[in-house]
Design a protein that fits this description.
four-stranded antiparallel beta sheet; globular; alpha+beta; Jelly Rolls; 8 strands
Length: about 190
């Protein structure tokens, strides 16, 4: 399992991990399995773990006063799942993250992160790269939510993350795009007619 995390890190940093780095990662990351619909974190909890998705899919969402889920993020293999703000600052999370499929994760708890690997150069480099990438993606998502039509949002998602359409049902994709599943169905039906 750790080999997938090692590959993920090596693909993103300049200097490849040493044997001692890999040994340390094996010591601090632990396998966690979630069954479909099982929570990784729940609203009101403090997120005390960071999770690397080895296998499976998860969704991050809030629940409004009517009980409707509002999907904010989707996670699949080789992605990180959690609430970084809650993890780093210790504030309660407003989010739920649960497994959409049976999922296998490599998790690290906050104390191991801080005490054992947080200050290592490869972790600092990886954190910088991932934070920068996430920032760019969030700005693109904010821009598209404010300026693109529903059709353009769907097309952008299909071009950026086509695998989402094989992994998640229409109602989850619709919520992620900020539209109803009926709107998404109409857009897809119109696209097929063209």
């Amino acid at each position: 399992m750790i080999d997938k995390l090692v590959q993920h890190i090596n693909d993103r940093i300049d200097n490849k991990l040493t044997e001692s780095d890999i040994s340390l990662l094996s010591e601090v990351f632990h396998l966690k399995k979630l069954r479909k619909h099982q929570y990784l974190i729940q609203s009101g909890d403090v997120c005390k773990i960071a999770a690397f998705v080895v296998k499976g899919a998860l969704k991050k969402y809030t629940v409004d006063e009517t009980g409707k889920e509002n999907i904010l993020e989707l996670f699949i293999e080789n992605w990180w799942a959690g609430d970084k703000e809650s993890f780093m600052i210790g504030t309660p999370t407003p989010y739920y993250i649960d497994a959409y499929e049976d999922t296998e994760l490599l998790i690290i708890n906050k104390s191991d992160f801080i005490e054992k690997i947080g200050k290592l150069s490869f972790i600092s480099e990886l954190n910088y790269i991932l934070t920068e990438r996430q920032s760019f993606q969030l700005m693109k998502r904010l821009h598209s939510s404010q300026t693109l039509t529903a059709e353009q949002k769907l097309e952008q998602l299909q071009n950026t993350y086509p695998e989402f359409f094989q992994r998640f049902p229409q109602h989850i994709i619709a919520s992620y795009l900020g539209m109803t599943k009926e709107t998404l169905s109409r857009i897809r039906a119109n696209a097929l007619k063209k």
